[in-house]
């Protein structure tokens, strides 16, 4: 087995085994510490995946559209022709690193503070690690059935995180999350079945490009897969599980949920739905584009009338994922690259926003915007960071959020024609609305005289908080200044994908 | 990379570094136990050092650039390549960029020095005014860096970075003063209104970039765009320009931005923000020249803005608001000059305006510092107690109104001359009626400007004192020196228009192409000494004389009383704020509420409803399955019978 293969397996095995170890250690704090170390090791294993010869497929005659840098491919259930096929390329690599990083930050944060509400800290860390296995597996799987399995692994531990450590209305929110996304999973299962049955293989490398699938099969499969991923992303109007889940989930749950869990949907859309059924993608692109822009506008308008901090950030995710989906829907290299960097930027920035919202809520014991004001008077650092995150999220050029949103608009303009130009214009207007609701948020929360809830705050930040937030702040700045960090690795695979879309 | 391009790269980087480091200083020592005051003093000193060093470094670099640059220069590297659309990271330098950079850096340095004294805890301050000095100074540095980035940028997207970071910095700085309840709303308005304009700016950049396949300014200028695309793109860019440069109808944020500290007003009005829009159009002028429709629109908007700002300035009582509206009006002159085909005249006025408007704001700050109010109805008679401030303000107002030979006279005359040429001789890219519009609006503007400038001077410095405070006095050194030094260019910069090295630098770099050999085009003179110069001078005397005559009759009364019933309309700036509120803000808010309700009741309602329906159905079926033994037994028998029947039927047919 090659070194890359070892790393691929390690990235999944480490958190998997770690979760079991953490669950077995009786001492709570020691278990959390072990969990954090495991998460750190996972990140250490994930980062060097970028190393290695990336051009090894270039010389072969018929290069497939997916050209993994490293692969791990063993027969798994021979009778059903199932293979345990993992691989990483420029589309998945940034997401893998982001997942490992956010999990580490969440575990480290849990080391400092376990959310009130019942469960033990070590159970929470174990569940976070299981969620990590599922998400990483989804990004790494190159076999459709395996992809589906990992996709499902995430569901129940996330349900438990929300139901075990969430806010007051957590059970209802967790149930809604689980049932709604399960509905999406059923469609995904059917879609996977349709594809595998028609093509006779579940290998994503072989399937990409729609080889061997008739047009009708592609249309049918794309519809099923796209709806399934739209639930996860979430795409308006299939988003309504998200605000409830976010509002009730504990801080670390929200961070993982917004930061990387949603990306399973957009990643699946690019890699599986568009890749496997390109004909279907072309057919459905206008619908997808219209819904994406509707998501942008509806998401930002709802935010403009929102009265709860975490709910507002949750709805802002709907808008931001709308930009990502608009980028995908254009089916151009520009648009898909915009979607990839938008994905990463949203994970970094919204992860930070949820951390900060959690910090505000933990300190003031309220998330109602009407009860928060004057944060910059009593906690200037926290207010400054909230301001930074909000400004990054509204897509200020020079910070990470800008590239995805601006180039989703530019890609729509590039496609041209009345429909896509209109979509581009509306999306740009959505950008202005995004600024409006974030400025409203900042004006309410940070300016004016301190409200009673805010007045008793102290300006200090805990070391664990700074440690958890600093990497995200730096990443938001670094990706904004050097988008090549994400797009440098994505260029070749996106070009290859767009090639088969033609 | 040559010396010039290296200087150009460093130009935004130096203040950026000062700003980023400054942001890391402790923002507020309040709540730190022990030596809080000590920490505060130390942080303040560090912030002052960083801020002044950043601005001074930028000024040195800009002057060096001006001295070394002997022709257009460019340096670039690929920033990122998104699916064939290349974004470059680079600088594009020419004489205009160097001159504007000098103006930006000079004003920034003046503002940094001035702020040291202006944001100092005074004996009358009940709340600690300045314990957030470090972020304040750092934000000024960022603001400067962003504007310098706009000035030197060689790529449209890089320009957009500076463009929007400026919007952010204006937002942060306008909201700085914690004692003003209206400051947060004003800050939000400034960012949001300009951001609405930037929707158009981004789309315009998108159209141009997609059309040219690159966002590099040189590529965009060189590309042969389809005329429809070009017109659409230029019109869209104008939306962003109108937002940043406070042109009708996106001018509404500027007067409210007076809630920011006075040095910030000087920064926003003189060298950054409002200048950026005019500069961007001048930078992309070849595109606009090829899209006369866009220039026509610009001319109409500029003329409207010119008169709107001038008339609104006549009725304000707040000294800063008079100056704010005068900025709106003066930017109208610049856009007007652009519309009639003379970016050089626009840039000349931009530079002189930067000098005299910075001077006016900083002098007004000295007055406000001394008397503790911004209302002219509570000032008066300050000439004796504040002679330095009086004379500096007089120079600034003279330049603003266009009193010869002060700076504003020459540059405004330059604008009027090109407008006149466009009107009478049909020169310029736009139809001659645009020239007429700009020319007439400019001439009326001269009289109105003279009127309100005179009023400001009389109300503030002459007559009987209405000052509540016992002894107003000239400001301390940190406030006085920037004002004094700015008075020099405000007085004499106009004469630079006669100097060939200056005038040549302001002329647009001709596109060297075989069809248009650049040496055949005679350079247009910046300063026009023709008989028509009498006209603006006469109008100036008329406006100033009317205000003075009114004041002579009753020195205690406000000359604005002469406006009669129009006074409240002018004071409210034709109620365009209310129009904006009624047409945009309220509908958007109502729409947001409706969408939220719809999303929660309809979209989520359907989901919740399906859940409830499923559990209801389940409960119903469960009830059916709970039955007493006889009924259950009957059910089982009936079922068995049905299955048997089915088996017989299916088996029989098979």
From TrEMBL, chain A:
InterPro entries: NADH_Q_OxRdtase_chainM/4, NADH_UbQ_OxRdtase, ND/Mrp_TM. Pfam families: Proton_antipo_M (PF00361). It comes from Micromonospora costi. GO terms for cellular component: endomembrane system; membrane. Residues 141-428 form the NADH:quinone oxidoreductase/Mrp antiporter transmembrane domain. GO terms for molecular function: NADH dehydrogenase (ubiquinone) activity; NADH dehydrogenase activity; ubiquinone binding. It is found in: Endomembrane system; Membrane. Its EC number is 1.6.5.-. This is NADH-quinone oxidoreductase subunit M.
UniProtKB/TrEMBL annotation, chain B:
GO terms for biological process: ATP synthesis coupled electron transport; electron transport coupled proton transport. The chain crosses the membrane at residues 6-25, 46-69, 89-113, 133-151, 157-175, 196-218, 230-254, 266-285, 291-315, 354-376, 388-407, 436-458, 479-503, 526-549, 632-652. Pfam families: Proton_antipo_M (PF00361), Proton_antipo_N (PF00662). The keyword 4Fe-4S does not apply. InterPro entries: NADHpl_OxRdtase_5_subgr (IPR018393), ND/Mrp_TM (IPR001750), NU5C-like (IPR003945), Proton_antipo_N (IPR001516). Its main location: membrane. Keywords: Membrane, Oxidoreductase, Transmembrane, Transmembrane helix. GO terms for cellular component: endomembrane system; membrane. It is found in: Endomembrane system; Membrane. The keyword Membrane applies. GO terms for molecular function: NADH dehydrogenase (ubiquinone) activity; NADH dehydrogenase activity. Its EC number is 1.6.5.-. Residues 153-421 form the NADH:quinone oxidoreductase/Mrp antiporter transmembrane domain. It is a multi-pass membrane protein. Coiled coil: none annotated. Residues 79-122 form the NADH-Ubiquinone oxidoreductase (complex I) chain 5 N-terminal domain. NCBIfam families: NDH_I_L. This is NADH-quinone oxidoreductase subunit L. It comes from Micromonospora costi.
């Amino acid at each position: 087995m090659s070194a890359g293969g070892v790393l691929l397996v390690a990235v999944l095995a480490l958190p998997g085994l770690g979760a079991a170890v953490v669950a077995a250690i009786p001492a709570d704090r020691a278990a959390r510490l072990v969990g954090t170390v495991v998460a750190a090791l996972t990140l250490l294993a994930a980062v060097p995946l970028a190393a290695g010869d990336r051009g090894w497929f270039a010389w072969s005659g018929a290069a497939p559209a997916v050209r993994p840098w490293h692969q791990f491919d063993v027969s798994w259930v021979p009778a059903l022709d199932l293979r345990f096929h993992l691989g990483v390329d420029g589309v998945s690599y940034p997401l893998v690193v982001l997942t490992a990083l956010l999990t580490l930050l969440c575990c480290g944060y849990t080391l400092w503070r376990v959310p009130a509400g019942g469960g033990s800290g070590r159970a929470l860390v174990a569940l976070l690690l299981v969620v990590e296995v599922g998400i990483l597996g989804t990004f790494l799987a190159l076999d459709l059935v395996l992809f589906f399995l990992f996709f499902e692994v995430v569901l129940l531990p996330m349900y438990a995180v929300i139901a075990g450590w969430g806010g007051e209305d957590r059970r209802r929110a967790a149930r809604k999350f689980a049932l709604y996304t399960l509905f999406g999973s059923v469609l995904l299962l059917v879609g996977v079945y349709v594809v595998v049955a028609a093509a006779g293989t579940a290998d994503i490398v072989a399937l990409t490009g729609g080889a061997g699938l008739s047009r009708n099969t592609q249309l049918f499969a794309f519809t099923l897969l796209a709806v399934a991923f739209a639930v996860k992303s979430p795409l308006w109007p299939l988003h309504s599980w998200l605000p409830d889940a976010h509002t009730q989930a504990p801080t670390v749950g929200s961070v993982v949920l917004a930061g990387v869990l949603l990306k399973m949907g957009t990643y699946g859309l690019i890699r599986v739905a568009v890749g496997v059924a390109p004909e279907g993608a072309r057919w459905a692109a206008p619908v997808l584009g219209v819904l994406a822009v509707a998501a942008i506008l509806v998401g930002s308008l709802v935010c403009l009338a929102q009265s709860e901090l975490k709910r507002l950030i949750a709805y802002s995710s709907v808008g931001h994922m709308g930009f990502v989906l608009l980028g995908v829907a254009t089916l151009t290299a520009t648009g898909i690259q915009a979607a990839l960097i938008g994905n990463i930027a949203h994970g970094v920035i919204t992860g930070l926003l949820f951390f900060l919202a959690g910090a505000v809520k933990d300190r003031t014991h309220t998330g109602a915007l009407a009860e928060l004001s004057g944060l910059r008077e009593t906690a200037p650092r926290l207010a400054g960071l909230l301001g930074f995150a909000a400004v990054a999220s509204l897509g200020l050029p020079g910070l990470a959020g800008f590239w995805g949103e601006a180039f989703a608009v530019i890609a729509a303009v590039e496609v041209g024609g009345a429909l896509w130009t209109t979509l581009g214009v509306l999306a740009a207007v959505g950008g202005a609305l995004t600024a409006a609701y974030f400025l409203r948020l900042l004006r309410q929360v940070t300016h004016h005289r301190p409200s009673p809830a805010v007045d008793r705050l102290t300006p200090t930040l805990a070391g664990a908080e700074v440690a958890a937030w600093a990497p995200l702040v730096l990443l938001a700045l670094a990706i904004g200044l050097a988008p090549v960090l994400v797009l440098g690795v994505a260029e070749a695979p996106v070009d290859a994908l767009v090639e088969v879309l033609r | 990379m040559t010396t010039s391009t290296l200087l150009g790269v460093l130009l935004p980087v130096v203040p950026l570094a000062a700003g980023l480091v400054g942001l890391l200083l402790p923002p507020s020592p309040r709540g730190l136990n022990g030596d809080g005051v000590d920490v505060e003093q130390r942080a303040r000193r560090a912030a002052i050092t960083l801020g002044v060093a950043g601005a001074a470094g930028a000024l040195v670099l800009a002057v060096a650039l001006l001295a070394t640059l002997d022709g257009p220069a460019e340096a670039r590297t690929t920033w990122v390549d998104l699916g064939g659309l290349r974004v470059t990271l680079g600088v594009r330098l020419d004489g205009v960029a160097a001159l504007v950079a000098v103006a930006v850096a000079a004003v920034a340095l003046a503002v940094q020095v001035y702020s040291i004294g202006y944001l100092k805890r005074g004996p009358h301050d009940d709340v600690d005014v300045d314990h957030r000095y470090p972020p304040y100074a750092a934000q000024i540095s960022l603001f400067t860096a962003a504007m310098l980035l706009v000035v030197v940028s060689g790529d449209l997207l890089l320009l957009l970075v500076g463009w929007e970071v400026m919007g952010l910095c204006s937002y942060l700085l306008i909201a700085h003063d914690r004692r003003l309840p209206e400051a947060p709303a004003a800050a939000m308005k400034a960012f949001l209104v300009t951001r609405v304009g930037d929707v158009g700016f981004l789309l315009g950049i998108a159209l141009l970039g997609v059309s040219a396949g690159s966002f590099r300014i040189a590529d965009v200028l060189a590309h042969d765009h389809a005329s429809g695309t070009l017109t659409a793109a230029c019109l869209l860019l104008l939306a962003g320009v109108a937002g940043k440069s406070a042109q009708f109808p996106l001018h509404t944020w500027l007067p409210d931005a007076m809630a920011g500290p006075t040095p910030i007003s000087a920064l926003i009005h003189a060298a950054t923000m409002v200048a950026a829009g005019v500069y961007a159009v001048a930078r992309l002028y070849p595109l606009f020249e090829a899209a006369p429709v866009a220039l026509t629109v610009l001319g109409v908007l500029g003329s409207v803005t010119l008169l709107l700002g001038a008339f609104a300035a006549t009725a304000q009582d707040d000294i800063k608001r008079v100056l704010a509206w005068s900025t709106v009006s003066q930017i109208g002159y610049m856009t007007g000059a652009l519309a009639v085909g003379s970016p050089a005249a626009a840039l000349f006025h931009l530079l002189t305006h930067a000098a005299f408007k910075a001077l006016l704001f900083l002098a007004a700050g000295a007055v406000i510092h001394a008397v503790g109010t911004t209302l002219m109805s509570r000032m008066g008679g300050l000439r004796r107690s504040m002679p330095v401030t009086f004379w500096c303000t007089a120079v600034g107002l003279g330049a603003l109104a266009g009193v010869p030979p002060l700076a504003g006279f020459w540059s405004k005359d330059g604008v009027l001359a090109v407008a006149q040429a466009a009107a009478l001789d049909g020169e310029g890219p736009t139809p001659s009626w645009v020239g007429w519009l700009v020319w007439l609006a400019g001439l009326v503007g001269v009289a109105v400007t003279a009127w309100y400038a005179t009023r400001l001077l009389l109300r503030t410095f002459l007559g009987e004192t209405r000052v509540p405070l016992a002894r107003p006095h000239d400001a301390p050194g940190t406030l006085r020196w920037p004002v004094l030094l700015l008075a020099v260019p405000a007085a004499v910069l106009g004469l630079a228009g006669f100097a060939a090295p200056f005038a040549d630098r302001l002329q647009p770099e001709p596109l060297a192409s075989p069809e248009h050999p650049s040496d055949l085009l005679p350079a247009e003179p910046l300063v026009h000494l023709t008989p028509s110069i009498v006209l603006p001078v006469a109008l100036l005397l008329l406006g100033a004389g009317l205000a003075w005559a009114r004041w002579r009759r009753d020195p205690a009364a406000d000359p604005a009383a002469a406006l009669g019933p129009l006074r409240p309309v002018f004071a409210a700036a034709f109620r365009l704020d209310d129009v904006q509120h009624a047409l945009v803000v309220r509908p958007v808010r109502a729409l947001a509420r409706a969408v939220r309700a719809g999303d929660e009741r309809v979209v989520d309602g359907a989901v919740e409803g399906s859940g409830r329906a499923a559990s209801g159905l389940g409960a119903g079926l469960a009830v059916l399955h709970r039955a007493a033994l006889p009924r259950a037994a009957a059910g089982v028998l009936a079922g068995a019978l049905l299955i048997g029947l089915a088996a017989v039927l299916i088996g029989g047919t098979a």
